[in-house]
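dumping this here so i dont lose it again. seq + smiles for pyridoxal-5'-phosphate
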Amino acid sequence: MDIFNKCATDAGYFGTFRVQDDCYFTRPVLDPIPGSRMLFNGKPVIQWSINNYMGLAENEEIMAHAAEAVKRYGTSAPMGSRMMTGNTDRHMELEQQLADYLGKESSVLFNFGYLGVTGTIQSLVDAKDTILMDKLSHASMVDGARLSAGDYRVFRHNDMNSLETHLKRVNRNRKGGILIITEGVFGMQGDLGDLAGVCALKEQYGARLFVDDAHGFGVMGEKGRGTAFQLGVQDKVDVLFGTFSKAFAAIGGFSATDKCVADWIRYNARTQVFTKSLPMIYVEVILKTLEIIRDNGEERRCRMMANAVKLKQGLLDLGYSVGNGPSPITPVYVPAGDMQAGARIVRSLRDLGIFITGVMWPVVPKGMILFRMIPTASHTDEEIQLTIAAFRTVRDQLKLKMDASLDEK
Ligand SMILES: Cc1ncc(COP(=O)(O)O)c(C=O)c1O
C-alpha cells in the first residue's frame, strides 16, 4: 500500500472539489487588496467573506506606518527565535500593551493565531490533565488538545449541564488538572460562549479556563476588549487568546494571563519556541492598530454593528434563516443543508456581484451548510441594500424553500 494512493481519490477534506481542480468554491482567486469591494475573476464584487471587522485592512495610516517599518527594519528582522536572537524591546512593549489593554499581567506573542492556540494548550496540559472542550471549538483548539499530552473530551455546544457532567466524571477519579476550552464569539455561527456559566463551573470544580476570542478581540466590549469583557468575566478567564488576523487585519496572535503562567507558555509552547519571532513589520503594525482600536475605535465599532443589524434584518425579512447573535457575524443557513442548493445560491449571488462563501464540514458539523457573512465598518449602506436585493432575486429565481429546516434533508 502506497501512502500516496489516497491522493488520486476524492477522499480527504473537500475531496470532491480538489479532484475537479476547483478554484471557484474552494480557493477562489481574488484580487488581494482587501475591502468591501474586490475583484473576483477580474469582476468587481461586494465582499462579505473577509474578517476585516473594523475596516482597517485598507487603512492608509497603518499602511504608511508599515512602509516606515520596512524602511527602518527591512523585511527579515529580527532574525532568530525569541529565545535566541529574535527578541526586541518592541516585542516586549507590544506584549505589555496587550496585557494592560485586557487587564492581565502579561502576554505572549505568537506568529499565527493557530500557533498561539495550539502552543498555549500544548504547553499547559500534561499527561495527567484533562481538557474539556466545547463541541464547536475551532480546529486549532482540537489540534492543541491533540498536541498536548493530556486526555480530551467534548461537551455539547454551550451546554452547561453537559460540561458539568464531564467535570463530575473527571473529578471522580481525578489525577491532574482540568482545562476548559471555549470561544468568546463562535467564529462560524456568531453566538457567544456562555462564559458566565463556564466561569461559575470552573470555580466550583477547581478547573482553569482558556477562551479563544479570535472573533471578539477588537470587536466586542468597551474599546474592543473582547467578549469576556463585555460579559463582565474578564478577570475570571485564566487565559485569554486573541488573534491579529481578524479585527486587526494583520497576522499573529497572543495569550494573555498571569505573569508566571505567561512565562511558562513563553518557555514551553513548542509552536513559538522552535520558530523565528514575529517580524518587526507586524510588531509595528499591530502596535499602531492597537492604538487605533483602543483609543479611537468607537465610531468604527458602532458602524460595523449597525451594518450587521441592517444586513441581518434585511435577510430575515426575506425569509432567510439567519443567525441573529450579538456579534457582527451573520450566518445564513442553506435550506435543508442542501449542498446543490448551496452551490446554486453561491453562483447566482456571485453572478450578481455579491461574493459569499459556503461553509461546510469539517468547518461546521456534518449536514450543515452556511454562508458566513462578515459585515464590516467599511461596508456602505448602498452595498448592504444591493446585497439584500440580490438575495431577493436569488430567492425568487431559484424558488428557494425558505422554511426547510436542516432535519428535512
Ligand atoms: C476561533 C479561531 N481561533 C483561531 C484561529 C486561527 O487564527 P489565525 O488565522 O490568526 O491563525 C481562527 C481563524 O480562523 C479562529 O477562527
